[in-house]
Amino acid sequence: MRQGQAVGSILRGKFITFEGIDGAGKSTHIGFVADFLAARGKTVVSSREPGGTPLGEKLRELLLHEKMHLETEALLMFASRREHIAQVIEPGLVRGDWVLSDRFTDASFAYQSGGRGMDRGKMEALEAWVHPQLQPDLTLLFDVPLEVARERLDATRTLDKFEREQTEFFEKCRGEYLRRASQYPERFVVIDSTRAIPAIQSQLSQVLEKLL
Ligand SMILES: Nc1ncnc2c1ncn2[C@@H]1O[C@H](COP(=O)(O)OP(=O)(O)OP(=O)(O)O)[C@@H](O)[C@H]1O
Ligand SMILES: Cc1cn([C@H]2C[C@H](O)[C@@H](COP(=O)(O)O)O2)c(=O)[nH]c1=O
Q1: What is the pTM of this model?
Q2: Where does the signal peptide begin and end (predicted)?
Q3: What does DSSP say about strands 188-192 and 138-143: parallel, antiparallel, or unpaired?
Q4: CB distance 113 to 120 below 8 Å
Q5: Minimum CA distance residue for ligand 1 atom 16
Q6: Residue 76: its pLDDT value, please?
Q7: What is the distance between the alpha carbons of residues 168 and 191, in angstroms, rounded to a whole number?
């Protein structure tokens, strides 16, 4: 089921993930992408991680607000993901829908391995166990320097457990995201998210046209 294509259960839809450090602008653009695809006749499912299912949303509450051991955090992220794949992602792709997810496994590499320092081999083992064949068709990495992300976050909301982390943590998350983008250039597109929203949407339109 690699790249959203047929194997066994026949995945006919496309899977697009949105990544970036907190405040980079992912959520701002998901609605635009959904509307762009819907206007071209695609059935779109928008979801998020952690979360996206009733159980996943309960896990999200714990993950965003409770202190816990690093490996507990990683395992709960993957527990939420397993449910999300079973309940939302795979059924959507089998139906032929375009599934948009605000974060997926690249976030676990960025935050739990990059930011918190969990062994990357253990993360790879979790990925291989939970979704050995499924990978996004496209990963949009919204990239901004930390100061920009922080300024945007501070302007808007009460910060959760991750958003209260220090600069060094987010430097490492961003570094790991960019490393993953270099490792998987076939599915990653890095978006310079310091630009104005219309300029970003123009780039997104071009990227999406190629996937249609
Ligand atoms: N290109 C941009 N220029 C100016 N402001 C922006 C831009 N993109 C997003 N913003 C603003 O920055 C804030 C954070 O954006 P958004 O919620 O999309 O980030 P996010 O990456 O989804 O964050 P999180 O992961 O924490 O949910 C919002 O107030 C949004 O309106
Ligand atoms: C999937 C995933 C997420 N996280 C972190 C990243 C964010 O700080 C929060 C989710 O909040 P958002 O506002 O919805 O982006 O969770 C993580 O650490 N590891 C993961 O795998």
Answers
A1: 0.95
A2: none
A3: parallel
A4: yes
A5: 25
A6: 98
A7: 22
Q: Residue 45 corresponds to which tokens in the numbers above? A: 């499912």
Tell the residue number behind the tokens 């405040």, with chain if given: 23
Q: Using CA atoms, how far apart are residues 76 and 70, in angstroms rounded to an integer?
A: 10
Among all bound ligands, the one having the nearest atom to the CA of 165 is 2
- Report the topology of domain 2-211: Rossmann fold (3.40.50)
Residue type, 18: F
User: Where in the chain are the domains?
Assistant: 2-211
Element of type H or E holding 138 = strand 138-143
Kindly identify the ligand whose nearest atom is closest to the C-alpha of 161: 2
The CA distance from 160 to 119, in Å, is: 24
141 alpha carbon to ligand 1 midpoint, in Å? Answer: 13
**Nearest CA owner, ligand 1 atom 25:** 22
In the block, tokens 């999300």 appear at 84
Torsion sign (Cα): 193, 140, 31, 86: negative
DSSP H or E stretch at residue 189:
strand 188-192
| Predicted-complex ipTM score | 0.97
Ligand 2 pocket test, pick from 26, 48, 103, 142 with the greatest ligand atom count within 8 Å of Cβ, gives: 103
Ligand 1 centre distance from Cα of residue 121 (Å): 32
> Ligand 2 pocket: which of 21, 105, 106, 162 to mutate (most atoms <8 Å of CB)?
162
Tokens 């100061």 -> residue: 147
pLDDT tens-digit map of 34-72: 999 999 999 999 999 999 999 999 999 999 999 999 999
